[in-house]
Structure formats: C-alpha cells, structure tokens
Amino acid sequence: MAETQFQGDQTPAEPVGHVIGFVETRAECDDVINTWLSMGVARDRILMLGGDDGLERFHAMMDNSQWGEESQRLLKEGDQELAEGHYVICVEAPQRADALRIAKAAQSQGGHGFAHFGRLVDERFTR
Question: 71-111: per-residue pLDDT in tens?
C-alpha cells in the first residue's frame, strides 16, 4: 500500500509543472500511486489531497493559476470531487510527455479528469 500522505510542505505553490486529476477511493489512490512508483515516478513528486485539509491545500495551490479555462474547470471539479469524499492527486511533471504517461497510467487504475499545467499551455488529458 502506498504511504503518500497529506504533508504540508508538499503542496505546490502553483499547478504549473504538474499533472492533476481525481480518484474516487483511497484504494484507487493506492493503486494509482503504486502504478506510478513502478513506472519510476519518485514518491516525493506525488501529492494526494482529501477532506477539508485537502480542499484548503487544493485552493491554495489553484489560487495562483486562475487565468485559464482549464484551471477554472479543475478548481470547480476539484471542489465537487472533494465534497463527495474523493481525492485530488497531483504529480510534478514539467514535461508534457511525462505528464501524459502519468495521466494515462492513472486512468487505467480509475483516475479521471487529469490535466497538465505547462508553462504556456494547460491541457486536459482524460475525462
């Protein structure tokens, strides 16, 4: 089982350079994280947010990126996902190719709504 927790010093200052999406259950989070670890993603690049604390941290991160449609969509969807007891999961991935690989792997484990926030372009990868 993955041991990634909600650590305060992990929350990115902004979503740029990250791929962010949603997972419904803790078991699915563990499956997604274990898949990423097996692909070589470092554990310290992965952040999982849930509950009221997760909502606070998610807003703190997204408040620095409210200029594009994708960040607005993700914030709205994240609010709903967290309110339903689901999780936001985020991985540091500056390169689009890495972010796409990470999102596709998560999708095969039940992850959805993944978007990559690049320096110039934000792009949704999965529904």
Answer: 788 889 999 999 999 999 999 999 999 999 999 999 999 99
Amino acid letter for position 25: T
Grade residue 62 by pLDDT with cuts at 50, 70 and 90. Answer: confident
For the stretch 117-124, contacts whose Cβ atoms lie closer than 8 Å and that sit 24 or more positions apart, written own/partner, are 117/14, 117/15, 117/16, 117/17, 117/18, 117/19, 117/20, 117/65, 117/70, 117/71, 118/16, 118/17, 118/94, 119/16, 119/17, 122/68, 122/69, 122/70, 122/71, 123/70, 123/96, 124/70, 124/73
Does pTM top 0.90 for this prediction?
A: no
Cβ atoms of 10 and 60 closer than 8 Å: no
